[in-house]
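Design job #97: recover the sequence.
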């Protein structure tokens, strides 16, 4: 079979096209493109079917598992190639974004950084600041461990640019919150409020971990299995029980530490996770539409507080 690989503007990406066997898959085509141009390894390639001129539809993305024959009738196929840029594994992306807050936060607790901001006096450390340090470090350590030992990702890689974007988000917020919670002029909340906040937060972190175990069990160890209907525990009520418990564990941290910086992060993180949860809920409803023998996605809240 003859395959022409063109850019979106119609230029030849692989000069003269490629000749592949009739039983070749999209993965074989990606490998053949890689052989011709070394820098375009398979996860860097996005292959789609060409659109008719003036069409406003979304192009069909080629599935690497499918046969090329599934995408054409005759013996010639034209595919549109897009370079996704340098890729990194999801584990690398998550590791670096969580490593920042894990290392930066203790710097504000242990080192005399406030002297550089003009505070010369002796710094008294309140118990809540020590517990906040433990809580914070436990949270990010847990997320790194989950990244390596719990999550079963379906996407192999992410663009390198996401590492910089995500690190900017986590590292900046981590430093911003650490600065205020460990500040020499920090005023602690009452003992009772601190206990309620951390107690509730730890409970939510345990629930969040359990939600991640339930998500893990939806896929086989090699990450196959696609998207399934999450069920059990809080997933019987909300589609994104993991985001819900994540939001509430930050609320617990904020009840205990009470800083504007912490609440700003809570609002931003809630907006981001709600947006993602809406997309995940829509995807599951589309996948499980009750037609052609597919199960129907049960009626659930997207996230709690409810957005339907
Ligand atoms: N503080 C913040 O700003 C913030 C923001 C986002 C996340 N987080 C925390 O980080 C955690 C991980 O985030 P995430 O966005 O990666 O979570 P996620 O997409 O909901 O899921 C975690 C893992 O479960 C898989 N999964 C999700 N739904 C599934 C389904 N229906 N069927 C089969 N597998 C499914 C995902 O697969 P895929 O690889 O296919 O996605 C991923 O590997 C969150 O739960 C939360 O605790 C915090």
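Job complete. Output follows.
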């Amino acid at each position: 079979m003859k395959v022409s690989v063109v850019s979106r503007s119609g230029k030849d990406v692989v000069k003269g096209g490629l000749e592949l066997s009739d039983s070749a898959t999209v993965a074989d085509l990606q490998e053949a493109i890689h052989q011709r141009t070394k820098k375009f390894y398979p996860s860097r390639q996005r292959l789609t079917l060409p659109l008719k001129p003036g069409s406003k539809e979304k192009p069909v993305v080629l599935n690497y598992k499918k046969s090329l024959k599934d995408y054409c009738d005759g013996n010639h196929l034209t595919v549109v190639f897009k370079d996704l840029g340098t890729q990194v594994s999801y584990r690398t992306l998550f590791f670096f974004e969580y490593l920042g807050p894990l290392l930066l936060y203790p710097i504000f607790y242990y080192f005399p950084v406030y002297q550089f901001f003009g505070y010369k006096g002796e710094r008294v450390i309140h118990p809540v600041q020590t517990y906040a340090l433990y809580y914070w470090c436990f949270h990010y350590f847990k997320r790194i461990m989950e990244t390596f030992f719990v999550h079963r990702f379906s996407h192999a890689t992410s663009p390198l640019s996401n590492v910089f974007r995500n690190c900017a988000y986590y590292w900046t917020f981590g430093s911003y919150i650490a600065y205020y919670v460990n500040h020499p002029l920090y005023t602690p909340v009452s003992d009772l409020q601190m206990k309620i906040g951390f107690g509730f937060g730890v409970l939510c972190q345990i629930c969040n971990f359990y939600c991640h175990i339930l998500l893990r069990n939806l896929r086989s160890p090699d990450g196959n299995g696609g998207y399934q209907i999450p069920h059990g525990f809080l997933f019987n009520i909300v589609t994104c029980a993991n985001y819900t418990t994540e939001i509430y564990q930050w609320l617990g941290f904020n009840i205990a530490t009470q800083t504007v910086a912490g609440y700003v992060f809570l609002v931003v993180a809630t907006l981001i996770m709600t947006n993602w949860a809406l997309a995940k809920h829509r995807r599951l409803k589309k996948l499980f539409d009750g037609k052609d023998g597919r199960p129907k996605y049960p009626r659930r809240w997207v996230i709690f507080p409810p957005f339907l």
